[in-house]
Amino acid sequence: MFAERLLDTLYPRNCIGCGMSEPDPFRYICWDCWSATNRVEPPFCDLCGDPVAGSVDHEFICYSCSAEKPAFDGARSAARYDGVVGEALRMLKYEKAFWLAPDLATLMRNCLLAEFPGRAFDRIVPVPLFHVRRRERGYNQSAVLAHELGKRIDCKRRPNALRRIRPTTTQTNLTASQRLSNVHNAFQTEKVRRLTGQRVLLIDDVMTTGATVNACAKALKKGGAASVHVLTVARG
Ligand SMILES: [Zn+2]
Ligand SMILES: [Zn+2]
User: Fold this and answer.
1) Separation of 17 CA from ligand 1 center, angstroms?
2) Which pLDDT value is given to residue 51?
3) Which ligand lies nearest the alpha carbon of 70?
4) pLDDT tens figures, 8-41
């Protein structure tokens, strides 16, 4: 707390959305900017968490999850990839804005408590970067988020439980099926099977088609994980 107060004196806090000084309830996002951010709101698919049009009054599984059940047991995201949350994620990923990670982790924790109430997890595991990419960037933004979230919930972190064993091109400009083959068999768990029977919470910054987290969940289950739930800050 003292360190935080010292930092606030040295670097005054401003909302990254509107510039308002000393925003609340987050450190760098004010309530108005957070309220204006689009959430991923129900009704959505019980499994992948993708929103569906219309009203649903029973447990609903979307078309793509019915066609092929994902390897993860549930996926949820705190907000849409736009507005102040999209901006914060871009700054964290490309501008080393680590000071935004605590706010993003708080959003994740709130989403976790609302969407997976009462569910316990044994391990928090971030989606890994391929080692060359990690070396180029200097850090893995998902690991930064997982580290911050770990301070806020009662769960052990396993930053290196997963490895990306081959380079994959960025998913951004790929179609859904290209995304699938791009990440197919790209992940592997640690050799020592420390994940046996573990309930894993898999962390990433953004989820789009879910191909990446699904490939990770497959690897985690192959490595012995009992369950894998996915939590991301945003949904593309
Ligand atoms: Zn603001
Ligand atoms: Zn679904």
Assistant:
1) 4
2) 84
3) 2
4) 777 778 999 999 999 988 999 999 999 999 988 8
**pTM, 2 dp:** 0.90
Assess contact for 217 and 201: CB atoms under 8 A: no
Q: Which ligand is nearest to the CA of 75?
A: 2
C-alpha 130/C-alpha 121 separation (Å) is 25
| Phi, psi for 180 (deg, rounded to 5) | -60, -50
Query: Which numbered ligand comes closest to the C-alpha of 48?
Result: 2
Q: pLDDT value at position 186?
A: 85
The percentage of residues in the chain with a pLDDT greater than 70, rounded to a whole number, is 98
Distance of CA 200 to the CA centre of its chain: 13
C-alpha dist (Å) from residue 13 to 10, 18, 31: 9, 12, 14
**Residue 29 burial (CB count, 10 A):** 27
**83 alpha carbon, closest ligand:** 1
Task: Give the closest ligand to the alpha carbon of residue 18.
Answer: 1
Find the 184 Cα to ligand 2 centroid distance in Å. 19
Q: Which has the closest alpha carbon to 32: 15, 47, 44?
A: 15
Please give the distance, rounded to the nearest whole angstrom, from the Cα atom of residue 181 to the centre of ligand 2.
19
Query: By the 8 A CB rule, do 147 and 160 touch?
Result: no
Neighbours of ion ligand 1 (CB under 5 A): 15, 17-18, 20, 30, 33
Ligand in closest contact with the CA of 235 = 2
